[in-house]
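ok posting inputs for the NAP job
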Amino acid sequence: MTTAELMTGTDLAAEIVAQAAARAKALREKTGVQPCLATVLVGDDPASATYVRMKQNRSKKAGIASRSVVLPADTTTDELVTEIHKLSSDPAVHGILLQHPVPAQIDERAAFEAIDPAKDVDGVTMRSFAAMAFGDPGFRSATPGGIMRLLEAYDVPIAGAHAVVIGRSPILGKPVGMLLLASNATVTYTHSRTVGLPEIVRTADIVVAAVGKPDFVRGDWLKPGAVVVDAGYNEGNIGDVHFEEAAQVARLITPVPGGVGPMTIALLLEQAVDAAEAQAG
Ligand code: NAP
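and the output
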């Protein structure tokens, strides 16, 4: 039996996309500029190809044009950086999304850093991270930005809350902790070398799971009444939190799918329109 309230992202994401679409239309009518999001896919991983297709389809529905760059699996770092530099300097492209992970031979950080920060609508560059950390304007990392919007929409008290983030990747764990900190949470980062993880999680008012391991966080790790955000997306639509167990203990919990996932795409599209508006002057 589920006791927790579901924190769903589907409707909120649809609202954000509808607003982005309206702004894209207004920009087109006023300036003739159509927002354009370039996607870069390296290799033939089917899951990555599906994510890119999904983002392109949603872009189209929102009146955002897509530019698709597909590169072979044996692309070198230099070749990828060259392609991204071309998009960075192309005035018809307003946002750039490099689908990750990229194949192992590529220096992913170098590829991310080739994105002009003004076009970094997925919030993956060091410049965007620094802006997030310092509370400056800039693009938010899309998934963390989506998580914050979800917490705000559900009126989750963040100031003074203890937030435990499980995972410290540069695109998810680290930035979501920074955004929670900027909203005055007391933040604990945990990772694969953390000792006594369940005990630490049990002290959390807000848990963000960003681990990449199915059903990793168990119900008995949670403080009763905790707010649980499951950013995990593992094969078979399984999150990083054991949903059935966690829902018995938590007050609010995101479903997988239908929680964080749609919010990530919504933030990406919203930021693509932000970028186009800024570049159209
Ligand atoms: P990642 O780069 O693989 O990072 C995973 C993090 O989990 C690392 O920091 C790692 O610690 C930590 N970790 C691994 N094993 C652990 C353990 N036993 N105990 C505690 N921490 C552990 O993954 P990611 O890109 O951040 O993605 C995380 C999850 O979010 C995945 O399921 C991914 O599919 C999902 N995701 C969803 C969206 C969305 O839109 N919904 C977007 C992006 C990612 P170390 O740093 O010590 O190795």
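notes: The two ends are 53 Å apart (CA to CA). The chain has two domains: 31-116, 141-259.
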